[in-house]
Each structure stands twice: as structure tokens, then as C-alpha cells.
């Protein structure tokens, strides 16, 4: 095996909390990038893909551990890397040519040489004649080409890409992907290795020589394997679909063994989130859960998650939270990448709206600690209302600020749907739902659901 | 501090520039502990004491008498002096705003303190800076005229810099993360980042706030060019002093000539400076798609298509910037080499110790000076405290009355204009012209008329506050009414909403965020305007009414520093408190509940 260009040694990322514990985002991780390979980093949202990428490029320093660039600490090394961003990150006030020239300018290159190289690379990515255009005049795909040109003009040893195709439409993405692959395979660009972060499993299998799958809470490597399918790869080939199916299995299966807990030099306890008080609520809407269950029912109650995703044209970031939510509520079981509907799940999918709510209510109170606590707190208080801050502070102990807010948002959406409680947004308090007389009940509930789905 | 009349024209761009006009939002959302408030107050007191101390020490030279001629022939020269003064003050503000905003945005430790200082400084009226600035400047510069000139320039600067600093700071804070990361991964130097990312990103906000600042400068020009300080009479030849002198002697023709010149200059500035700037800054708009609405400017067209200019640039700035980039890149390489050789940087502990020592020393000095400043308040008598309390209450009522009056007429009119495009086409240019005249310049005319029909300063002061601040509310309401989606209006028509229901459920909630933005700006402006509105010299007599602004003006004129200090503290306190207790919650409400879309 050739020597690694970039090697991460026990890198981790965490945020210190004011209280005694801290929020672990990525547990200690080893990862190397060697010449000659395209590495794809896959993972559900919240697994720290982007964070890991930024640590590998040297943009963000790890909380502990070290990243080496040719065996020298990356902070003091002159790492020759580029990033292609999801949002393109072009400067809208610079022309295409000026955007591409900017990195060369930063390196103090002569104007004439700078121009020659920029025009050459623009030619390579198919942007001939667009030099004087401003990014806002271009389509998304063209803009990302500028992003590629800017990244390639410095002739990076490692090209990093952070979900480069996810802001593009399907056809444009496909086109750009195959062109990138062609540049890489024909060695038109001197790049030694490509590292791509994606949440699109097919994209990973199409491009990568090696796939690293991350798990979450905290982020850790679940599997890291080579892909030896010959190029060009056929999406319909059995080997291809088997690989996609396999990755779905890895992603949906609970960890066989949890990642090793990090030790802290200061002796602060690091707690594994899965062993903590509150389970993490998947960010799925009740309407989405019902939709998924109906789809599974259409597939005779049991099917590959991979095929379901295909049916829905969903990427894993869209589908997995819904699957997790259905699983959490006991509507669905997942085994070896197969989703099977349970009896309550079937009843839920077939039920009319009031019955659905009832089932959801029972399942939620039974399975979700946070919802149970909110309901009890509201009932216990004499004025039947509890401030949001109370639960915010409890969740804050366990989740990052951003995640805490998302947890609360999900809890509110579920609680409102199930009519477990209501939320007064102007006073930021959980309150008891208003009970309505039966005639207007139907009308009211259907309206509420419409709002939730909207 | 000045958010005073300016032409909020070109309404079509109002929506897209809400980020800039809402620069204050960021501040309103900020909360800082009580302790920090105390620190800032102490620093403020300390600065005041230091300046007054030095000023009193240096004061006491005779001054030559400058006679302001009221002949129209003198006007071009006076106008020229005033424009130069405002221009220099503006440049000073721009440099300061960029520097201050940059430091505040990137220095984590200094950030909360620096923003708190800005928030307080902008609540202090221009005249409170006057004695310190003027006496210090006169003493600093041996040539008398230069000293007074510098003083006037710094005064105008204190009136126009704060909102620009806020704007630059909040622009820096809102740069998208991936753009910053791109500058990091492509090894941009701080210089390149400033030129290619930060300044362009902040450009639109800076241009709009520049327009506001210069309008504010015109508003306070009269106060800055001619004033009494204790027994001393300062006057500078200029348009402001011309108008003031004309008002003093009740010379109607003089006032008319002065006003005409001022309006002409303002209109010319708009065409020659602001319009090209706005058109040029359009390219810095951070948007995904190209918008079709554009401000056009023939002058900008001329500049961009000029071959001569292009060749001049090619031979001056281009080689210069190239050499800068080359040098910066070389420096970066050397630094990396040293880093690779040396390993961990040494001497960190020494700087830490130095920092602590410095911090202790500075806070010691600040504490001492603040204490001294409080000592300065000792001669203030009980009755004077009572007077100030009374004045504060009067001004508070006056400010709110003028706000209510402004809202009462601007809301219906603004909504009508916003809902009817055809009306807008006629009314908008008229309103823009009306708004472009600095209210202070009109003030003498109004006051003379008021005195003739038997009204007094009480009505006059409210009229001036109204004149100066109503435009903010009007233009914001128009923008808000235009932003209400037509399907909401259609729903109201479809279900036959009554007029009251229409206003309660569609119109008022729809314009609410805009209304609040306008009211915050107007309220700050009205407080500042009170120093002129409540105390004015016209026809050889000083008209005044009970109020905090009048007390500040009177204290300045008679050189009673303790009283000036006390009144200023009270005013700053009231403005900051209203912002915290009233405007901040309302802003939050506007941002959450009444936000249309997303």
C-alpha cells in the first residue's frame, strides 16, 4: 500500500458544555487517504461527515488527535488541497475567470501565467467562452463547473468534495459525475486522490474505489471497504444493486458493538449518547410516517429499504429519519435492510384519521420519553402549562444547541399531531390542547394535519 | 446615532436591502449582562471626564470674529466649505466604520464590549460631544481656524459613523460560512479576503448607510457650524451657519436662498454620487438569480466605459495590487517555513501575562476617571435633578407623541400608496423630494410662522421631530404594503372582510415588521432631534421649551458641564432602555410571528 497523503490519527470533535459533560460529535477516528483512489464518505445526517471533511483538509482543527499531511502535522504543512462546495461558494461579484484566478492570486502567481492556467482549466471543464460571465448568469450546473475549475486550477493533490451534486437536478448531476470520472480516469488532472462526502448511496457506488460508512451519535466509522467493480459501472447490474443493498443494511442496522468511548485527559466524563436519558427523535413528520407505512403495505408489508427509496426517489437523508421514526413508534421493524410492517403499523396505515391519531398517541407516549414527560408536566401544573425552557435545559445536557432545538421542534410537531399537548409559540409554553365538541372535531383535526404536512 | 431623514427612495430595492436597514436587529437581539453595562458606563464617564479635563485646561484663547455674510453671492463659497466638511467627515466615518466593524467581528473577546459601546454611543446626541470635541480640537491645533474646522468635522463624524459601523459589522457576521471556508482553503491573505469577500459583501449595506449618514450630517449641519460654548462663540463659514444667521435675524430672503442652495446640493449629490454608487453596488448583490429591476446611472456608464480611466487604472492600481499579492504570498510561505522548523510557537505565556497587566492597568484608570466624572456631578443641585427629570418626561412624551402622529398619517397613506401602483407612481417622487429637504433647514420658516399665529416652541418641537422622522415610517409602510402577497388580499375580498377585519387580519400584521423597523429608526431620530427641536434661536431670541434636549443645548451654550453630563446620561439611559424594553421585544415578535414567507 502506498504511503498516505493525509492520515488522521485518533481525531475527534466535541463541544464542551458548561456542565460537567460534553457533546461528542465524532469519536476518535483513524482514516487515511492514499494516492490513486476515490473515497466516498457516506452517512446519515448528524454523523459528522462535513465535520470530518473539514478536519481532514485542515480547515478546522480537531478537538483531539492529529491530522498529518505527508506525515507532517497539517497545521504547519503547506497542504495542497481543494474543496468543491455544495453551495458552490463562488464570489458573485467576480467573473468566472476572476473566480478561478483568485486562488492563484493568493499564491502570488504572475498575471500572465495565472491567466493561461485559468483559461486552460476552464477549457477542460467545458466553460470555454464563459470567462467574462458572472456566476448569477449561469445555471446551477455551470456554476458547479466553475466550482470545479476553481478547485482544480491549483492542481490539488487531494480534491475534496462536500456533496457537490446535491444542489443540482438529477440529469445535470449525472452529467457532471461522468465528466469528473472521465477527467480522473484519463489522468487529465494531476489530482492524486478524491474524497467525496455524499448522502446518495448510488452516487458513492458509482464513483468510489473505497466507501467509508459513518454511524452517528457520535460519528464513527461503521465500515470501510473497497469497491472493485469495473468502470463504467452499470446501475442495473446485480453486483451494483447488491452493494447498494448492503450499504442500506449497514445504515439501518443497529451497531453490533458501539464505538469505543473516548477517554479525556481532564477526567471529564464522556457519555455515549445512546446510553443517555433521552433517545434521539428522528426528524420525521407524522404525515411522512403514514405515507411510508402505506407504501410498505402496498409492497405486501415487507420490502427492501433500498427498493422503497428507489420507489420514492429518496436519498438516505430523506428516508432514514422516517424509517427510524416508524421503528421507534413500533410501526415497523427493520432486519437486514428489510422493512416489515407490524400489526399496529398495518392498523395505523389503514385507519382513518382519528384512529390514526389515537394509535400514534398511544405509541408516542409508550415509546418516547420526552413526549411522556411533557404530557405529565403539563398535567401536573395547576395552570396546565410548562415553559419550553424547562425541557430545553434538560435536552441541552445531552444534545448540542442546534440538535436540542430540532428535538424540541420534532417533539412539538408529534405532540400537536397526536393531540397530546399544544404549544403556544408566542409565550413559548407547552399547554393542554383545547378539547372540542365532537361535531367540529373532524373538521379541526383535518385542518391541523394539513398544517403539519404543509 | 443619526437615523434621520434621508431619501429612502428607490423603493423597489427596499425589500432586497432589508438586511442592511435591519442592521440594528442584530444589536437588539444581543443581550449582555448587567456587569458589562456598568463597565461601559464607567468607560463612557471616564472618557467624558478626560476630554473635559483636557478641554478645560486648554481653553481660554481669544477668537477672531467671523462675520457670516447674508448676501447670496457668498453662498457658493459657503456651500463649498460645508460640502468639504461633510465629505471629510464622511470619509473619516467610512474608515473608522470599516476598522471598528472588522475588529468587533473578528476579535471574540472585544466583540461584546465594542458592540455595547456602539449601542450607547449612538444614543448620545451630537451636542453632548460638542464641548469636549471642540475645546480639544481648538487646543490641539495651533492655527485657530484649523482647530475649529477639525472640531466641526469630528462633530459631524460623531453624528454619522455609528450606523455605518453597525452595518459593516453585521455584514461581516452574516457572510455565508462556505465562502469563508473557500477563502481559507485557497489560502487567501487577510488583504485578499477583505478586497474580494468582505468589502464586496458589505458594499450594499455600506452604500445605503452612507446615504443615511450624509443625510444626517445635513440635518445637524446648522448645529455643527455655529454654536455658543460658555462665553465663547464659535462660527464657521458655511451653509449651516448661513441659514442659522439668516434665521437669527429673521431674513426671509436669506433663508430662501440658503434652503434653495441646500436642496440643489442634495439633489446634485444624489445624481452625481449616490445613484452611480447604488447602480455600481448592484453587482455585489448576493443573490442566486439576476433580478430585472435595476437602478441605472448615466454617470456610472460613463465611468465604466471610459478608456482613459481604464488605462489610468491599468498603470496604477493593477501593478500595485499585483505586487501586494506577490509579497503577501511570499510572506505566507516564509511564515509556514518558520512554523515547520520551530514547531510550537513560544512566548505565549509572556503575552498572556502582559495582557493581564494591561487589563488591570486600564480598568484601574477607567475606574478612577469614572469616579472623578461622578464627582463632577456633585455641584448639581437637587432642584436641577428635578428639572432634568421633568425635562426627560416632557421629551419622552413629545417623542412618542410625534411618533404616534407620524404613524397616524403615514400608515393609511403608506398602505394606500403601496396598494395602488398608479398612485405610487405619482406620490413616490413627491414624497422623495419632500423627504430630501433637511427638516432643520425648514425649521426657522415653520417657527416664524408658528410664532405669528400664536403657537410656541411646544408645538414647534413636535413639528420638527415629525418632519425629521415621519419619512422613515412612511417609506417602510409603503414597502410593507407592497410586500403583502396578493393572494392574502384576495382572500380578504373573497370572504367579504369588513374594513376593520381587513386591517386587523391582513394589513396591520402584514406591514408590522416594516412598521417596527421604521418606528425604531424614527424613535432614535426623534430623540436626537430634540436637542435642536426644543431650543432654537430665531429673530434674535432663543425659543425653548421644557425638555431634555433643551437642557442639553442650554448647558452646552452656557458651558455647564455637570448639567450637560447629567442630561446626556439620562438621555442615553432612556434611549437604551426603550430599545431594550420596547423595541427589542417588538422586533422579536416581528421576526417570528409576523414574518411573511419562509
Automatic annotation (TrEMBL), chain A:
Residues 6-241 form the ABC transporter domain. Keywords: ATP-binding, Nucleotide-binding, Transport. InterPro entries: AAA+_ATPase, AAA-associated_dom_C, ABC_transporter-like_ATP-bd, ABC_transporter-like_CS, ABC_transporter_ATP-bind, P-loop_NTPase. GO terms for molecular function: ATP binding; ATP hydrolysis activity. This is NitT/TauT family transport system ATP-binding protein. It comes from Granulicella rosea. The lineage of its organism: Bacteria, Pseudomonadati, Acidobacteriota, Terriglobia, Terriglobales.
TrEMBL record, chain B:
It is found in: Cell membrane. The keyword ATP-binding does not apply. The chain crosses the membrane at residues 34-58, 78-103, 115-138, 150-169, 199-221, 255-274, 356-377, 397-419, 431-453, 459-484, 505-527, 563-583. It is a multi-pass membrane protein. Keywords: Membrane, Transmembrane, Transmembrane helix, Transport. Its main location: membrane. Residues 79-278, 392-582 form the ABC transmembrane type-1 domain. One of its GO terms (biological process) is transmembrane transport. InterPro entries: MetI-like (IPR000515), MetI-like_sf (IPR035906). The keyword Transmembrane helix applies. GO terms for cellular component: plasma membrane. It comes from the Bacteria. Belongs to the binding-protein-dependent transport system permease family. This is NitT/TauT family transport system permease protein. It comes from Granulicella rosea.
Amino acid at each position: 500500500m502506498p504511503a498516505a497523503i493525509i492520515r488522521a490519527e485518533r481525531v475527534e470533535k466535541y463541544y464542551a458544555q458548561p456542565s460537567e459533560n460534553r457533546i461528542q460529535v465524532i469519536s476518535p477516528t483513524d482514516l487515511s487517504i492514499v494516492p490513486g483512489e476515490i473515497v466516498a464518505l457516506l452517512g446519515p445526517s448528524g454523523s459528522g461527515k462535513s465535520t470530518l471533511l473539514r478536519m481532514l483538509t485542515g480547515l478546522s482543527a480537531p478537538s483531539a488527535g492529529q491530522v498529518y499531511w505527508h506525515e507532517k502535522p497539517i497545521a504547519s504543512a503547506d497542504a495542497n488541497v481543494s474543496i468543491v462546495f455544495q453551495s458552490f461558494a463562488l464570489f458573485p461579484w467576480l467573473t468566472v475567470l476572476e473566480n478561478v484566478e483568485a486562488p492563484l492570486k493568493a499564491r502570488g502567481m504572475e498575471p500572465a501565467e495565472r491567466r493561461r492556467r485559468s483559461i486552460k482549466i476552464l477549457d477542460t471543464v467545458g466553460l470555454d467562452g464563459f470567462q467574462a460571465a458572472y456566476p448569477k448568469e449561469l445555471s446551477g450546473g455551470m456554476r458547479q463547473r466553475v466550482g470545479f475549475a476553481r478547485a482544480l486550477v491549483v492542481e490539488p493533490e487531494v480534491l475534496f468534495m462536500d456533496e457537490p451534486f446535491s444542489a443540482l437536478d438529477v440529469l445535470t448531476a449525472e452529467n457532471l459525475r461522468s465528466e469528473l470520472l472521465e477527467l480522473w480516469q484519463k489522468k487529465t488532472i494531476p489530482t492524486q486522490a478524491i474524497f467525496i462526502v455524499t448522502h446518495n448511496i448510488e452516487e458513492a457506488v458509482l464513483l468510489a474505489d473505497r466507501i467509508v460508512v459513518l454511524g452517528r451519535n457520535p460519528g464513527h466509522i461503521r465500515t470501510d471497504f473497497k469497491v472493485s467493480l469495473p468502470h463504467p459501472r452499470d446501475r442495473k447490474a446485480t453486483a451494483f444493486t447488491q452493494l447498494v443493498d448492503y450499504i442500506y443494511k449497514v445504515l439501518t442496522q443497529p451497531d453490533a458493538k458501539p464505538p469505543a468511548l473516548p477517554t479525556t485527559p481532564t477526567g471529564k466524563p464522556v457519555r455515549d449518547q445512546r446510553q443517555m436519558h433521552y433517545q434521539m427523535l428522528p426528524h420525521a413528520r407524522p404525515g411522512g410516517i403514514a405515507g411510508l407505512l402505506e407504501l410498505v403495505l402496498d409492497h405486501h408489508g415487507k420490502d427492501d429499504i433500498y427498493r422503497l427509496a428507489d420507489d420514492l426517489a429518496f436519498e438516505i437523508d430523506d428516508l432514514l429519519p422516517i424509517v427510524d421514526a416508524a421503528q421507534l413508534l413500533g410501526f415497523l421493524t427493520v432486519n437486514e435492510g428489510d422493512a416489515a410492517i407490524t400489526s399496529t403499523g398495518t392498523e395505523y396505515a389503514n385507519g382513518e384519521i382519528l384512529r390514526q391519531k389515537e394509535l400514534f398517541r398511544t405509541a408516542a407516549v409508550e415509546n418516547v420519553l420526552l413526549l411522556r414527560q411533557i404530557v405529565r408536566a403539563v398535567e401536573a401544573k395547576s395552570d396546565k402549562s410548562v415553559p419550553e425552557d424547562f425541557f430545553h435545559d434538560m435536552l441541552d445536557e445531552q444534545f448540542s444547541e442546534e440538535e436540542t432545538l430540532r428535538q424540541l421542534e420534532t417533539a412539538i410537531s408529534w405532540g400537536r399531531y397526536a393531540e397530546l399537548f399544544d404549544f403556544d409559540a408566542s409565550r413559548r409554553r407547552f399547554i393542554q390542547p383545547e378539547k372540542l365538541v365532537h361535531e367540529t372535531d373532524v373538521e379541526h383535526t383535518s385542518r391541523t394535519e394539513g398544517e403539519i404536512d404543509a | 446615532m443619526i437615523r434621520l431623514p434621508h431619501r429612502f427612495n428607490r423603493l423597489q430595492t427596499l425589500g432586497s436591502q432589508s438586511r442592511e436597514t435591519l442592521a440594528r436587529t442584530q444589536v437588539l437581539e444581543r443581550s449582555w449582562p448587567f456587569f458589562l453595562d456598568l463597565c461601559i458606563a464607567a468607560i463612557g464617564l471616564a472618557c467624558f471626564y478626560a476630554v473635559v479635563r483636557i478641554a478645560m485646561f486648554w481653553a481660554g484663547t481669544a477668537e477672531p470674529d467671523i462675520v457670516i455674510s447674508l448676501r447670496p453671492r457668498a453662498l457658493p463659497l459657503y456651500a463649498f466649505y460645508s460640502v468639504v466638511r461633510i465629505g471629510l467627515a464622511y470619509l473619516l466615518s467610512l474608515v473608522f466604520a470599516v476598522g471598528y466593524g472588522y475588529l468587533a467581528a473578528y476579535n471574540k473577546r472585544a466583540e461584546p464590549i465594542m458592540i455595547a459601546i456602539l449601542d450607547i454611543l449612538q444614543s448620545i446626541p451630537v451636542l453632548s460631544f460638542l464641548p469636549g470635541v471642540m475645546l480639544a480640537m481648538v487646543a490641539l491645533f495651533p492655527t485657530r481656524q484649523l482647530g475649529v474646522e477639525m472640531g466641526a468635522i469630528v462633530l459631524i463624524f460623531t453624528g454619522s459613523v455609528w450606523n455605518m459601523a453597525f452595518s459593516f459589522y453585521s455584514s461581516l457576521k452574516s457572510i455565508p460560512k462556505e465562502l469563508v471556508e473557500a477563502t481559507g482553503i485557497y489560502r487567501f491573505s487577510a488583504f485578499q479576503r477583505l478586497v474580494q469577500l468582505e468589502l464586496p459583501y458589505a458594499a450594499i449595506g455600506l452604500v445605503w448607510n452612507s446615504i443615511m449618514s450624509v443625510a444626517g450630517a445635513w440635518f445637524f449641519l446648522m448645529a455643527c457650524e455655529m454654536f455658543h460654548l460658555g462665553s465663547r462663540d464659535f462660527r464657521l463659514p458655511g451653509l449651516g451657519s448661513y441659514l442659522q444667521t439668516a434665521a437669527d435675524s429673521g431674513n426671509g430672503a436669506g433663508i430662501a436662498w440658503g434652503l434653495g442652495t441646500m436642496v440643489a446640493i442634495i439633489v446634485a449629490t444624489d445624481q452625481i454620487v449616490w445613484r452611480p454608487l447604488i447602480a455600481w453596488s448592484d453587482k455585489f448583490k448576493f443573490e442566486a438569480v439576476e433580478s430585472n429591476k435595476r437602478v441605472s446611472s448615466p454617470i456610472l456608464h460613463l465611468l465604466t466605459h471610459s478608456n482613459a480611466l481604464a488605462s489610468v487604472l491599468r498603470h496604477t492600481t493593477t501593478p500595485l495590487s499585483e505586487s501586494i499579492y506577490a509579497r503577501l504570498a511570499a510572506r505566507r510561505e516564509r511564515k509556514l517555513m518558520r512554523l515547520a522548523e520551530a514547531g510550537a510557537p513560544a512566548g505565549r505565556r509572556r503575552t498572556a501575562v502582559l495582557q493581564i497587566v494591561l487589563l488591570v492597568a486600564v480598568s484601574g484608570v477607567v475606574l478612577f476617571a469614572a469616579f472623578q466624572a461622578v464627582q463632577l456631578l456633585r455641584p448639581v443641585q437637587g432642584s436641577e435633578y428635578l428639572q432634568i427629570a421633568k425635562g426627560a418626561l416632557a421629551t419622552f412624551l413629545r417623542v412618542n407623541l410625534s411618533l404616534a402622529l407620524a404613524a397616524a398619517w403615514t400608515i393609511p397613506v403608506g398602505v394606500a400608496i403601496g396598494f395602488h401602483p398608479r398612485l405610487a407612481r405619482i406620490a413616490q417622487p413627491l414624497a422623495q423630494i419632500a423627504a430630501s429637504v433637511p427638516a432643520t433647514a425648514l425649521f426657522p420658516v415653520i417657527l416664524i410662522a408658528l410664532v405669528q399665529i400664536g403657537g410656541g416652541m411646544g408645538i414647534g418641537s413636535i413639528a420638527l421631530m415629525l418632519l425629521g422622522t415621519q419619512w422613515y415610517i412612511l417609506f417602510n409602510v409603503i414597502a410593507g404594503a407592497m410586500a403583502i402577497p396578493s393572494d392574502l388580499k384576495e382572500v380578504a375580498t373573497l370572504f367579504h372582510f369588513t374594513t376593520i377585519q381587513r386591517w386587523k387580519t391582513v394589513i396591520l400584521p402584514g406591514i408590522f415588521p416594516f412598521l417596527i423597523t421604521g418606528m425604531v429608526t424614527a424613535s432614535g431620530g426623534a430623540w436626537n432631534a430634540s436637542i435642536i427641536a426644543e431650543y432654537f434661536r430665531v429673530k434674535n431670541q432663543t425659543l425653548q421649551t421644557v425638555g431634555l434636549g433643551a437642557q442639553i443645548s442650554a448647558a452646552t451654550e452656557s458651558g455647564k458641564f455637570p448639567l450637560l453630563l447629567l442630561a446626556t446620561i439620562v438621555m442615553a439611559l432612556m434611549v437604551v432602555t426603550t430599545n431594550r424594553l420596547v423595541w427589542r421585544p417588538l422586533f422579536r415578535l416581528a421576526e417570528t410571528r409576523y414574518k411573511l414567507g419562509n
